[in-house]
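Quick one, T. Sequence first:
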Amino acid sequence: MKIIPTGRGPIFVDDCDLLWLLGLSVHWYLGNGYARAWIDGEVKDMHILIANRHGLYGQIDHKNQNRADNQFTNLRTATTSQNMANVGLIQSNTSGFKGVTWHRRDQNGKPLSALAVILRI
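Structure tokens:
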């Protein structure tokens, strides 16, 4: 693993991808947690470039939820549903659990999915 330092924190990449990325002769930066660069007049995400280089196409997900960790072993193709399931708790979460919302009238937590109701989660 190699580290590319930026003003907002390190970007992690595999040894085999470092020279290729440096050969692009661009300045990498962290935007919204993702490693990005301007290439041919548009913003490109490093994790997508690396995944495409290794034959993965479509939506690319970071397995460990660390957007700056662009090692190939941390990247996978995912459907939108799978990608959203890998998101951590949102900032406004009050229950401490994914998929559970506070119901003000009843003063208790309510599951957001029908499956959770059936399973009594």
